[in-house]
Write the structure tokens for this entry.
Amino acid sequence: MSVGAAIRGEFPILEHTTYLNSCSQGALSQRVRRAYEDYLAGWDARGAEWEHWVERAEAARGAFARLLHAEPTELAVTTSVSQGVNGIVSALPFERGGRNRIVISEYEFPTVGQIAHAQELRGAEVVHVRPGADGSIPVERFAEAIDDRTALVCCTTMSYRTGHRQDVAEIARVAHEHGALCLADSYQAVGAIDLDVRALGVDFVTGGTVKYLLGSAGLGFLYVRRELLAQLLPTQTGWFADEDIFQMDISDYSPAADARRFDAGTPPVPNIYGGVAGMSIIEEAGVAAIEAHVSALATRLIAGLDELGATVVTPRDPAARGPLVCVWSNDVARLVDELAAERIVVSLRDDNLRVALHLYNVEDDVDRVLAALAERKPLLV
Ligand SMILES: Cc1ncc(COP(=O)(O)O)c(C=O)c1O
């Protein structure tokens, strides 16, 4: 399967809608719909299929691992980013006066910031790293905030608010210089940007299937660098994290030796069916091909926005952006509603209109949204 026009037939919504909202949720494919139907058919035909469900969870783990260029033993299957981040912080002591600081970028998703601040109840201090006037957060700002008391640095790969891409590799390097760990929430990148966890040198990567992985809510992942596993004991846990799930032993805590120690309860089986199907579309297209396709569309979009005299919030440098292009508006809610009335689905955050590009988008989609914006120039200046 390919990208652009060649794949559009898989996604019924594209027959009638210009869909530019993959930063919120990827479009539903026929393949994902069939996967959900298979789940229901199996339930009808055979009842509980525990062994098959465990096998499907392992299929999801394998797909996540391939997408990140990691080993399956470095991946936990979660229900959300929140579960993964809670698992990590639950394994860190945050003793007052000791290594108790969590450094977070201003572009973290609320769940990361809120979980970090919740650790204040356990002795943590949270340090915020704010963007400069141009909206980017240079690595130097992280370097100023990270010191020998930093336990964890959270740097989202792509800002869901502005489309800025952070230099995760450099931030991880600075974190490591100070003995800190580094987490990259990559929800807004995975599936649209080729992420190689080894090349990034980052300790943790988390994300989920709702957006560019084309699945539904309720399935996520946490990558944990294998060298760290032995020293990290999550205290947020569950029986699917145990070294022997079906031993049914309540006498101790004996987590799996690999990253499955960050799993928790019963796997989200229906979402795994959908997620594995969605990820198979991404894998067949190839993330590198998707990244190149999306980058070219973003370049076209930004050039068109410049012609309109709009304020593009997302960086122009292709290396500093990804599938999300944001543009400022003086009435963004109205803009989103008016475009929706023309069957152009975009979204908003802060004062920014968000246009998200994915493998199924084509130049026509970009031209269509630009034409709709050209008719509403007063909302852009
Ligand atoms: C960057 C980012 N992180 C996390 C989430 C969601 O977190 P969770 O899976 O805990 O709902 C989203 C989107 O919903 C996101 O865009």
Summary: Residues 80-82, 109, 111, 156, 160, 185, 187-188, 208, 220 surround pyridoxal-5'-phosphate (CB under 6 Å). The chain has a mean pLDDT of 97. The longest helix spans residues 287-308. The chain has eleven helices and twelve strands.
